[in-house]
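task queued by scheduler; priority normal; single chain, no ligands, no partner chains; default sampling; output format set to structure tokens
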Amino acid sequence: MNRKHILLVGGTGMLAGLASYLAIEDDVTVIGRNKEKMASVGQRNPETCHPLIVDYCDEELLSNALQRAVQEKGPFDRVIA
């Protein structure tokens, strides 16, 4: 199967269920600020749900984190924000 790489911004709140659903078939990089909430999201699909704990208000940190995610899993096929 050819997995897509999806970026989900704010996937620890009301989008946590979507992160788990998408991670059934695709690689999902989830941006969130809260480590505790992120831990519960990543536990559901640890092989395909990739937490990215970063404050998206800090442009430099966000840019570096996104570049690392692309290097590891390839470019994003879809962004949900």
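post-processing summary
- The longest helix spans residues 59-73.
- The mean pLDDT is 91.
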